[in-house]
Design a protein that fits this description.
alpha/beta; Aspartate Aminotransferase, domain 1; 2 domains; five-stranded mixed sheet; binds pyridoxal-5'-phosphate
C-alpha cells in the first residue's frame, strides 16, 4: 500500500539518443516526415514517439511529463510555461460560462485574482470558503459547481486540506477536486487521496534553483488529452509551452527533489520550533500546535518531513520590514518572493504574494501585517542560522506573548490570531 514517489522518480530512466544518461534535449519547433500520409496520420492521432510541432508535444517535455506523472501517481502529465498556466488551463477546461467553482479562501494571490477578477469575465464565478468548515463548503456547493479547489498546504498560512473528505463531498455534488500541490511535492500525493487533478508551480521546489518559471498538471489520460486537444484544448490553444531546454534542467533537478525536501523540512521544523519557543505565533504543520498536525501526519508520505515553508507573525509591518532587512544584511537569505530555493527566501505575504487579496479578507483569515513567510533553505548549520536570527529578534525587541503561544514574554499587541 505504501507509495514512495521518490522511488517512482528513481525508476524513471529516459535514455538519450546516444545512450546519454540525460535524455537528449530536443532543440526543434517542428519535425520532418518521410511521407505526406504519415504527417496527416500524426496530425490526426497522437502516436507514441511521433512528433509534429513543439506546441503540441516535444520529446523533452514528454520525458519530464512522464516522470511527473509517476511522481504524482497519475496516468499522464503536461508541463507548461508557468504554474498559473497549469491552473488557468485546468479551470478553463473544466468550466464553461455559468459554471461555479468553490475555492479555499487561502490560496496563492495570483490564483485568487484569476478566480475573483478574470474568470467572472467569462461567466465563471467562485465562492471562497474556509475549507476546514465542512458546513460552509457544503453550503457553497450548487448543481453548477464543477470544481472544489484548494492548495494541499495553503499559501501562506499552511492550512492542510483534508483531501479525502473534500473528495467525497465533491463526488456527492458531481464536482472535481483540483489541488495545487506546489508547497508539498513528494510529501502529499493528492491523486492517491482522491483528487482528480493536481498541479504544481515547478518554479518552486520541483526545480529548486530559482532560475526559471514552469508548471505542470497531472491527471487522467483523458483530462491531459483534453487540455491538449488541437481543436479545443486550453493549453494547446492559449499556448503556454515550456521551453525544452528548461524542461531538461527541471528533469535533472527532479532527481534530487527527495534529498532537498527532506533537508528543507528538517531545517524548517527546527526553525519553527525555535520561533515558537521564543514565544512568537508560528504556522508550521510539523508543530503539534498546528491545527492540522494530526491530519497531515495521517495523509503524508514518509521520509520528506512537513515541508520547507514556515510563517511567523512578528506583530506589525514595520517590525517585519526591519527584521527582513536585517536578515538579508546578516546573510540569512534573500528578501524575495517565491520559494523552494536552496537559500532561504523571506517576504511579507500581505504586501507581496497575497496582496491581490483585499486587506479585510486577509485579516479575516489570520494573515496579519506582521506575518513573514520563510522558504527555509538547505543551510548546513541551522543552529548557527537560528543564532543569528535570534540575536536580530533581541536587537529589534521582538518577543512573543501572542494568544495561543505558551512561552510568551513581553507583549507586542496585535490582533492577528
Ligand atoms: C508560485 C505559485 C503559483 C504560481 O506559479 P507560477 O509558476 O509563478 O506561475 C501557484 N500556486 C502556488 C501555491 C504558488 O506558490
Amino acid at each position: 500500500m505504501t507509495f514512495d514517489p521518490a522511488t517512482e522518480i528513481q525508476n524513471f530512466l529516459a535514455f538519450g539518443e546516444f545512450g546519454d544518461v540525460n535524455p537528449s534535449i530536443c532543440d526543434s519547433s517542428t519535425y520532418t516526415f518521410m511521407s505526406v500520409a504519415r504527417m496527416e496520420e500524426v496530425f490526426e492521432h497522437e502516436i507514441e514517439g511521433c512528433f509534429l510541432y513543439s506546441r503540441h508535444w516535444n520529446p523533452t517535455n514528454k520525458a519530464l511529463s512522464t516522470a511527473l506523472a509517476r511522481m504524482e501517481a497519475g496516468e499522464s502529465a503536461l508541463v507548461m510555461a508557468s504554474g498559473m498556466a497549469a491552473i488557468s488551463s485546468s479551470f478553463l477546461q473544466l468550466c464553461s460560462s455559468g459554471d461555479e467553482i468553490v475555492s479555499s479562501r487561502t490560496v496563492y494571490g495570483g490564483t485568487y485574482a484569476l478566480l475573483a477578477n478574470l474568470l467572472p469575465r467569462f461567466g465563471i464565478t467562485t465562492r471562497f470558503v474556509d475549507l476546514s468548515d465542512e458546513q460552509a463548503v457544503r453550503a457553497a456547493m450548487t448543481p453548477r459547481t464543477r470544481i472544489l479547489y484548494c492548495e494541499s498546504v495553503s499559501n501562506p498560512l499552511l492550512e492542510v486540506a483534508d483531501i479525502p473528505a473534500l473528495s467525497s463531498l465533491a463526488k456527492e455534488h458531481g464536482a472535481r477536486v483540483v489541488v495545487d500541490n506546489t508547497f508539498s511535492p513528494l510529501i502529499l500525493s493528492p491523486l492517491r487521496l482522491g483528487a482528480d487533478v493536481v498541479m504544481h508551480s515547478m518554479t518552486k521546489f520541483i526545480n529548486g534553483t530559482s532560475d526559471c518559471v514552469a508548471g505542470c498538471v497531472v491527471s487522467s489520460n483523458d483530462f491531459i488529452a483534453s487540455l491538449n486537444d488541437i481543436n479545443s484544448g486550453p493549453s494547446m490553444l492559449l499556448g503556454p509551452v515550456l521551453d525544452s531546454i528548461r524542461a531538461a534542467g527541471i528533469l535533472k533537478n527532479l532527481h534530487s527533489l527527495h534529498v532537498r525536501m527532506a533537508r528543507h523540512s528538517a531545517n524548517a521544523l527546527y526553525l519553527a520550533g525555535q520561533f515558537q519557543n521564543a514565544g512568537l505565533t508560528v504556522h508550521y504543520p510539523g508543530l503539534t500546535s498546528h491545527p492540522q498536525h494530526e491530519l497531515m501526519s495521517r495523509l503524508m508520505n514518509r521520509g520528506f518531513g512537513f515541508g520547507g515553508i514556515v510563517a511567523v507573525d512578528v506583530g506589525d509591518k514595520a517590525t517585519a520590514d526591519s527584521l527582513m532587512t536585517r536578515m538579508q544584511e546578516e546573510k540569512i537569505g534573500y528578501l524575495a518572493v517565491s520559494l523552494g530555493y536552496f537559500k532561504t527566501l523571506f517576504s511579507a505575504p500581505g504586501h507581496s504574494t497575497s496582496s491581490e487579496i483585499p486587506p479585510e479578507e486577509r485579516h479575516r483569515m489570520g494573515m496579519g501585517d506582521g506575518l513573514i513567510r520563510f522558504s527555509v533553505g538547505l543551510d548546513n548549520d541551522m543552529e548557527r542560522t537560528w543564532g543569528t536570527v535570534n540575536s536580530l529578534l533581541q536587537e529589534l525587541g521582538i518577543s512573543g506573548g501572542h494568544s495561543g503561544s505558551t512561552k510568551g514574554r513581553g507583549v507586542r499587541g496585535h490582533g492577528a490570531g
